[in-house]
Structures are given as C-alpha cells and as structure tokens.
Amino acid sequence: MKPFSILLIKVLGLYLFLKTLFSVLPVLFGPSAQEFWSAEWLPMLVATAAVPMLGGVLLWCFAGRLAGRLHGDAEAGIDVRDEELVRAGSFLIGVYLLVRHAGMLVGGYASMGAIAYESLIVVVASLGMILGTGFLGVLYLKVKYFGVDR
After folding, report:
1. Averaged over 118-122, what is the pLDDT?
2. Scanning 2, 63, 81, 149, which has the fewest C-beta atoms within 10 Å of its C-beta?
3. How far apart are CA 94 and CA 128, in angstroms?
4. Angle between helices 63-71 and 2-28 (to 10 degrees)
C-alpha cells in the first residue's frame, strides 16, 4: 500500500505543478504580459501560481515521508484492504484541495483585502480530510457493513 501511496502522491504533485504552470504561461508571455509583471499584480500572481506550484514540488519531494506517516513505516506486503484505499484517497484529495484553495484564499486576500469564505470552508474541510483519515476509514467501514453482523 505504501508504494501505491507514494506513486499517487507524486502524481498529485506533478498534476498540481503542471496544471498551474500551463494555466499561467499564456498570461505571462502573451501580448498583454507587461501589466501582470507590475507590482500591483505580482502578489496575486505569487499567491495563485507559486503556492500550488510549490505545493506540487513539495509533494513530489516528500512523497515517501507522507506515505510513511499515512501508513506507518512498516511494510506489510501486498495486503491492500479497501479501508486503506479510502484513507489514502481521502488524504490525497484533502492535500489537493488544501493546496489549490490556500492559493485562492491568499490571492483573494492579497489582491482585494477580502476573505474568500468559500475557499476558507474548503481549506478547513481539506484539513479535516488530511488529519481525519483514520476517522474516515472507520466511517467507511460502518457504512460498508451497515446492517450486517460481522
């Protein structure tokens, strides 16, 4: 399970980095690129582009450590249970949402001085998904075996 999680964390990091890079490149090198390099737009650009790209690089670099913290450092062979997949998936979805919406939250605050409450709610929910993977695994098992005597 740990090698699978390492692979998925690296794919998530690569996705975050490349998706942000390819969405920013046309704006930065297009015909009206000079206005985006001004001091007025630079904080928003850093918050909305650099934060997800840095998050993607950090996910790629620390994928082994994150998977070790998620599953423990002991390898148990290839015994993959479905609740382990739920834990790994909820953790990865939480990391993705945290990195994407933290950039939006900081960018909105830096550019307009206002708090983007929808991004704040997503950041709080993603932290719950990251830190509550054990709870989500237990909840999955309760839903899976609801009404069945084990």
Report:
1. 87
2. 149
3. 8
4. 140
